[in-house]
């Protein structure tokens, strides 16, 4: 497991990390609770947090509450509070604040390892359940609901003042593909394009979802207009390189139309997606297999084609 230790005493934190390392756990230690929260927020591979109650700038109760908000937003995270004040009031208050478990200091190695084994079972189950609830089974991308949840978290983050690039894409002539070659071909097209969007989202710290039947959406935080357009053109060209055989031996190729915009600070996700959808309609109307841009207050315009060098 990847475990974060938050403890005001660096000596104590190193002692806890040493106990964890004995059982092969990967650890990161912090004496500053705000820095610890930023680390956990940025690294979704963190499975558990061990936090003292006597931390600063946020005390342990506030830290547990902030961690619980992260967990409630859709990521498996087990929070264990540590304190030498093991009386009933501390225990009830820290559990009410969002901790999953409580352990008394000084830590006993076997008790700590037993509690982490329980945490591992819980996070493994939570991860499986969250994956099933958030993923589209065919493409492997986020489903529509999970995408909106992810966007809400980004849009409400007070530390992020930049815009979020939105790319809405639709496969061209998809109904004809299903009608002429069967739904197996359509399913394969969804899987191939889904893989492209997933790879791009992972490489650029974004979020990709299957938004409708043959419609995909990609969000890229911190992207300016040029970067959004470049990303859309890259994906458009990649879709055009997809080729596979139908069950009857007919070669299948694909193209996609794209509408792009940027979600500005203060506007709703739905408003920005509607703008991207308008741009996508223009791309379809003007011949498909192209990118259209629509910005706040701007007239639609055809995005210039990227050169081979770009």
UniProtKB/TrEMBL annotation:
First-level EC class: transferase
InterPro entries reported for this sequence: CheY-like_superfamily (IPR011006), Diguanylate_Cyclase (IPR050469), GGDEF_dom (IPR000160), Nucleotide_cyclase (IPR029787), Rev_trsase/Diguanyl_cyclase (IPR043128), Sig_transdc_resp-reg_receiver (IPR001789)
Example GO biological process: phosphorelay signal transduction system
GO cellular component labels: plasma membrane
Domain of life from the UniProt record: Bacteria
Family annotation (Pfam families): GGDEF (PF00990), Response_reg (PF00072)
Catalytic activity as recorded in UniProt: 2 GTP = 3',3'-c-di-GMP + 2 diphosphate
GO molecular function: diguanylate cyclase activity
EC numbers, comma separated: 2.7.7.65
Coiled-coil region(s): none
Response regulatory domain span: 2-120
Domain GGDEF, chain residue ranges per copy: 162-296
PANTHER family in UniProt: DIGUANYLATE CYCLASE DGCM-RELATED, REGULATORY COMPONENTS OF SENSORY TRANSDUCTION SYSTEM
Protein name per its UniProtKB record: diguanylate cyclase
Organism: Saliniramus fredricksonii
């Amino acid at each position: 497991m990847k475990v974060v230790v938050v403890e005001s005493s660096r000596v104590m934190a190193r002692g806890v990390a040493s106990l964890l390392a004995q059982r092969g756990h990967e650890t990161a230690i912090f004496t500053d609770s705000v820095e610890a929260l930023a680390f956990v927020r940025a690294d979704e591979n963190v499975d558990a947090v061990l936090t003292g109650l006597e931390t600063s700038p946020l005390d342990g109760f506030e830290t547990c509450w902030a961690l619980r908000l992260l967990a409630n937003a859709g990521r498996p995270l087990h929070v264990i509070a540590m304190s030498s004040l093991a009386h009933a009031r501390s225990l009830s208050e820290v559990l009410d604040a969002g901790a999953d478990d409580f352990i008394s200091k000084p830590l006993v190695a076997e008790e700590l390892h037993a509690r982490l084994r329980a945490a591992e079972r819980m996070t493994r189950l939570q991860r499986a359940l969250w994956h099933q609830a958030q993923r589209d089974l065919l493409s492997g991308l986020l489903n529509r609901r999970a995408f909106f949840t992810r966007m809400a978290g980004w849009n409400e983050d007070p530390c992020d003042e930049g815009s979020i690039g939105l790319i809405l894409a639709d496969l061209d002539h998809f109904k004809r593909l299903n009608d002429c070659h069967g739904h197996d071909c359509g399913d394969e097209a969804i899987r191939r394009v889904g893989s492209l969007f997933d790879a791009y989202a992972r490489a650029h710290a974004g979020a990709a979802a299957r938004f409708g039947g043959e419609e995909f959406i990609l969000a890229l935080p911190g992207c300016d207009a040029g970067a959004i357009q470049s990303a859309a053109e890259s994906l458009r060209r990649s879709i055009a390189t997809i080729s596979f055989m139908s069950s009857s031996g007919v070669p299948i190729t694909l193209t996609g139309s794209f509408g792009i915009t940027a979600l500005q600070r203060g506007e709703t996700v739905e408003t920005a997606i509607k703008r991207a959808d308008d741009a996508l309609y223009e791309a379809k109307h003007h011949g498909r297999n192209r990118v259209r841009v629509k910005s706040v207050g701007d007239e639609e315009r055809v995005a210039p084609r990227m050169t081979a060098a770009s």
